[in-house]
Design brief:
The chain has 66 residues and is α+β, with helices and mostly antiparallel strands. It is 39% helix and 26% strand. A three-stranded antiparallel beta sheet has the order 1-2-3, with helices on one face. Strand 2 and strand 3 (26-30) form a beta hairpin. The longest helix is centred in the last third of the chain and has 21 residues, at 36-56. It starts with a strand and ends with a helix.
C-alpha cells in the first residue's frame, strides 16, 4: 500500500506519491494534482497498474500507465 504526502522543499507544496513497483522496489513520484484526493486517485491508478503487471508477469509499469 502506498502513501500520499506533501513535499514543501521547493517552497510551493507539491503532492507526491510513494508505492511499490512490480519488482518490490519503492517508487516516488511528484504529481501535478491540485488536491490530496486527486493524488490518491493517481496513487490508486499506479497501484492497479502494478498489480496488473504482476498478474501478467510484466515488468515495465510505465507502459501500462501510458
Amino acid at each position: 500500500m502506498g502513501c500520499v504526502y506533501i513535499d514543501r522543499r521547493a517552497g510551493m507544496p507539491v503532492r507526491c506519491i510513494r508505492y511499490l513497483d512490480v519488482n518490490g522496489g519503492i517508487r516516488k513520484e511528484r504529481t501535478k494534482a491540485s488536491s490530496m484526493t486527486l493524488a490518491r486517485r493517481i496513487l490508486a491508478e499506479r497501484e492497479n497498474a502494478g498489480e496488473q503487471a504482476r498478474l501478467m508477469r510484466l515488468s515495465p509499469v510505465k507502459e501500462l500507465i501510458e
